[in-house]
Amino acid sequence: MGKAYLSMDKLSVGYNKRVLIKDICIDIHKGEIVTLIGPNGAGKSTILKSITRQLQIIRGKVVLDVNDLHNTTFKELSTKMAVVLTDRMKPELLTCHDIVATGRYPYTGRLGILTREDEDKVDEALAAVNARELGTRDFNAISDGQKQRILLARAICQEPEIIILDEPTSFLDIRYKLELLSILRNMAKKKGITVVMSLHEIDLAEKISDKIICVNGDRISHFGTPDEIFREDTIRKLYNIDNGFFDPVFGSIELQKPAGKPKTFVVSSGGSGIKTYRKLQKNNVPFAAGILYKNDIDIQLARLLASEVITEEPFVEISKDTFEKALDVMLSCDRVIDAGVVIGDCNKRIGELLHIAREKGMIVDE
Ligand SMILES: Nc1ncnc2c1ncn2[C@@H]1O[C@H](COP(=O)(O)OP(=O)(O)OP(=O)(O)O)[C@@H](O)[C@H]1O
Questions:
Q1: Does any ligand 1 atom lie closer than 6 A to the CB of residue 46?
Q2: At which of 223, 247, 271 does a domain end?
Q3: Is the ipTM reported for this complex over the cut 0.95?
Q4: Closest residue by CA, ligand 1 atom 27
Q5: Per-residue pLDDT of the chain (366 residues; tens, 9 = 90+)
Q6: Residue 39 Cα, ligand 1 centroid: separation in angstroms?
Q7: CA 215 to ligand 1: nearest atom
Q8: Ligand 1: does its nearest atom lie under 6 Å from the Cβ of 262?
Q9: What DSSP state is assigned to residue 138?
Q10: Do the Cβ atoms of 23 and 10 come closer than 8 Å?
Q11: Angle formed by the axes of helices 144-157 and 116-128, to 10°?
């Protein structure tokens, strides 16, 4: 890979000369989307504040393009870097249009008078975040989610080379979260703008980021691609999760499985079990699941939520051993839920299992 656009070189950051995170060595390239994840208080904002010159660096340096960040003038910095931090903006009597227009100040004269072209860019930026109708509203009198969109518009019309955002999705509803992330993706992939942000939604971080930085209190515990980072044990350790699971296949969080010996047996395949598993989980009913082929989609959730899963190798006829194991478990239960399975040659023993359950009157509706 070519030269980095933003480099953190043996960087130590913290407050009042007390180091919080030390020896950060990270290279970020042009057009990359890099996301900081980690638990509350881990130091994500501290790093973002340090690379945007809002917090003095304790040791090491940050190089932006080819310049040491601390030798860059604020004027130069403002043509290269846009910063979106929602919490510190409390402007007096400014409309949303005024706020967005401040994004053009690096390009206007001393008096900040906007040209026709600047005005067009403000309009375009407001339109890009679907906030044209907010233009004349007082910035202090709009919702937090609306503020987030206005601040993104300001960053867009600043036409930066890099945009730094601290939890930009935290106040947004699902539609605007997706919209914001797709705006960022377009900025990165179509215009080559580098994006560095922190996110709490790790499922979104996984989907949008080229690289992930795991911030863990006193250090960066991992830096790599989403494929390298989003593994169950890495996420579990990072967030110290002991009351649930991270599912790396879907990037989702699952609550702990219901405790106790399973009294319900679920037969399903090809996704038909997912609704049933979730319902049993919500009602705190421990269950067993099977017989599932190891490449069946149901297995991804069953392995997290079921007390026991009886599996078979893909594309083979279900063996006598597997059948007997499933039968044992099924007969130790009180009831069987048939969530839907198509019986063919390979899996005809599931048909036998269901036949026995039916004969014994064990089949119940969900
Ligand atoms: N101004 C400050 N002075 C001293 N310590 C601070 C200051 N701001 C934050 N801290 C401390 O620095 C640590 C890291 O905080 P930081 O805000 O960077 O975490 P974060 O990962 O962004 O957390 P969150 O996800 O909760 O926003 C925390 O222990 C916090 O209490």
A1: yes
A2: 247
A3: yes
A4: 40
A5: 678 999 999 999 999 989 999 999 999 999 999 999 999 999 999 999 999 998 999 999 999 998 898 888 888 888 899 998 866 667 778 899 999 998 888 777 666 787 888 889 899 999 988 889 999 999 988 888 888 889 999 999 999 999 999 999 888 888 888 888 988 998 899 889 999 999 999 989 998 999 999 999 889 999 999 999 998 889 888 988 877 777 777 777 788 888 899 999 999 999 999 999 999 998 999 999 999 999 999 998 999 899 999 999 999 999 999 999 999 999 999 999 999 999 998 999 999 999 999 999 999 986
A6: 11
A7: 21
A8: no
A9: B
A10: yes
A11: 140
Residue that finishes a domain, picked among 247, 265, 282: 247
Query: Do 122 and 218 share a structural domain?
Result: yes
Beta-strand pair 18-28/6-15: antiparallel
What is the spatial distance between Cα 284 and Cα 23, in angstroms, rounded to a whole number?
45
Q: Whole-prediction pTM value? A: 0.84
User: Same domain for 187 and 334?
Assistant: no
Question: Is the shortest distance between the CB of 250 and ligand 1 below 6 Å?
Answer: no
Number of domains composing the chain: 2
For residue 16, the domain's CATH number is 3.40.50.300
Spatial separation of the C-alpha atoms in residues 44 and 216, rounded to whole Å: 9
